[in-house]
Design a protein that fits this description.
The chain is mainly beta and about 180 residues long. The chain has one domain (about 35-175). It is built from 1 helix and 15 strands; from the N terminus they run E-E-E-E-E-E-E-H-E-E-E-E-E-E-E-E. The chain has one helix at about 60-70; strands at about 1-5, 10, 15-20, 25-30, 35-40, 45-50, 55, 75-80, 90-95, 105, 110-120, 125-135, 145-150, 160-165, 170-175. The strands form 5 sheets. Strands 8-5-13-12-11 form a 5-stranded mixed beta sheet, with no helix packed on it. Strand 11 (about 110-120) and strand 12 (about 125-135) form a beta hairpin. The termini are far apart. Belongs to the VPS13 family. This is Vacuolar protein sorting-associated protein. InterPro entries: VPS13 (IPR026847), VPS13_VAB (IPR009543).
Length: about 180
């Protein structure tokens, strides 16, 4: 168990591999069960949700926010792990100014999920796509969870256009080009 600057625990995993015909040599790998990449461009909050306990804030989120600053939109990896006492492995998400999501699973490799988060301040929704893949190479024991915008609007016309969500009166202006 590691702790971040806020004292929040991160339960890293150990993989023990005995090297055959080596006279007892072995390889020990320390890894994070999940790496989360936030490609939404918005601030995210993640909590592990267990059946009988309150949701626990994931370790390291403040560090990632501090590294990014206010204007940068990079997908820095966030190591994530569930506590060892619950096997349901559910998370709840909050993106930008949204409300918390319903519990989601990060366990089904190859799956893509559309999570709809109601906005806390407006009559709108935030759609986030979640994809779960196995890590490559030396990260093969880690699941890579990517959070990305579900919809991207791009205006390639020579004029500005306005768009809005059904049921909302707030207009979004998409600049030309």
């Amino acid at each position: 168990v590691c702790k971040d600057n806020e004292g929040l625990p991160l339960n890293l995993q150990l993989h023990y591999y005995r090297i055959p015909d080596s006279g007892g040599a072995f390889r020990l790998t320390i890894y994070s069960p999940y790496i989360i990449l936030n490609k939404t461009g918005l601030d995210i909050n993640i909590k592990a949700k267990s059946l009988l306990q309150q949701a626990r804030t994931a370790a390291g989120q403040k560090v990632v926010r501090d590294l990014l600053g206010d204007d940068e939109q990079k997908a820095l990896p966030l190591m994530f792990a569930f506590s060892g006492d619950d096997q349901r492995n559910r998370v709840i998400l909050k993106v930008g100014e949204s409300n918390w999501s319903k519990p989601q699973s990060f366990d089904a490799i190859g799956s893509t999920i559309d999570v709809v988060l109601p906005s806390a301040t407006q009559n709108t929704e935030i759609h986030v796509g979640i994809s779960i893949e196995n890590g490559d190479g030396k990260y093969k024991m880690t699941k890579v969870v990517t959070l990305a915008p579900r919809f991207v609007l791009k205006n390639r016309m020579s004029e500005e256009i306005s768009a809005r969500e059904p049921g909302s009166s707030e207009l979004m202006t998409l600049k030309r080009g």
